[in-house]
């Protein structure tokens, strides 16, 4: 994700880079092969899709039908300013950027066993308290 301009109203540029590595493409192709084996069962014959065969065709198909079905977390590590991997401090303030906080699931170190919505709401509630106290 990249900031496109200084204007807060301008949406960021988001390029998730799906299927950008050989490993990602291989996993996608193999998952489609497994799906194919399942769909080849006689009970599913009426629903069989048009087949593609080569890795390149499978990679294209994976890119065409692929979506984010998980909730990304752990992309904005919390830690002290002297930790080179840390993005935010314990109050979600971005290191080196005055007045900016990260208030979303990215500050969770690992994904929860359930939906991330409720923990994200709690992160936001806590951040709102800190913001109000600092105003």
Q: How many helices in DSSP terms?
A: 3
Strand fraction band?
Answer: under 5%
Radius of gyration (CA) equals 21 Å
Distance between the termini: 29 Å
Fraction of residues in helix: 25-40%
Low-confidence stretches: none
Structural class by secondary-structure content: mainly alpha
Most strands sheet: none
> What is the string of helix and strand elements?
HHH
Number of strands: 0
Which word captures the global form?
elongated
Mean pLDDT: 88
Summarize the helices and strands and which ones pair or pack:
Elements: H1 22-39, H2 55-65, H3 117-134
Helix pairs in contact: 1-2
Compact overview of the structure:
It contains three helices and no strands. The chain has helices at residues 22-39, 55-65, 117-134.
